[in-house]
Write a structure and sequence with these properties.
Helices cover about 30% and strands about 35% of the residues. It is α+β, with helices and mostly antiparallel strands and about 150 residues long. Strand 5 and strand 6 (about 135-145) form a beta hairpin. The chain starts with a helix and ends with a strand.
């Protein structure tokens, strides 16, 4: 029996409706910034000339503020634990901030907040990370500043 195109299409749509919908994974993690700064990989990439302070964290006296900026870094999560991927993406963000701070004449990035999908999440100890099935991402926003040494 020959089926018409409409019959085949209707059958396909019915089967698709019965199939479970694939849901993308988006696991939220809160990782201590201190853990990223203590990574062996950070020692060679962050030179110490720029300090990082989360919003609400005690900072030295701010002598001058410069512009605000954001960094949205991602890493391939395949073969990495969510936690390591989060730390790796955060390290990439800190490196980008360090490079920009130096260009601006700043020695710190203050008031760092998580900025995933432009939603601010403040913590004085942790940043927010989102781990998907394949991609892990960290978005941070902060202000470049000159702080007392």
């Amino acid at each position: 029996m020959k089926k018409s195109f409409k019959q085949v299409l209707a059958l396909g749509l019915a089967l698709a409706a019965l199939s479970p919908v694939a849901q993308a994974r988006d696991t939220t993690l809160h990782i201590p910034l201190a853990d990223v700064l203590a990574m062996p990989e950070a020692q060679g990439k962050l030179d110490g000339s720029v300090k990082f302070y989360l919003a609400g964290q005690k900072t030295p006296k701010v002598e001058k503020t410069f512009s605000s900026d954001s960094s949205n870094q991602k890493t391939n999560g395949v073969g990495k634990s969510d936690e390591f991927g989060c730390k790796w993406a955060a390290l990439s963000a800190l490196i980008a901030f360090q490079n920009s701070a130096k260009r601006e004449g700043a020695n710190a990035v203050i008031d760092l907040v998580s900025y995933y999908k432009k939603n601010e999440v403040k913590s004085d100890t942790t940043f927010e990370c989102h781990a998907g099935a394949v991609i892990i991402g960290v978005a941070l926003k902060g202000t470049y500043a000159k702080v007392a040494e």
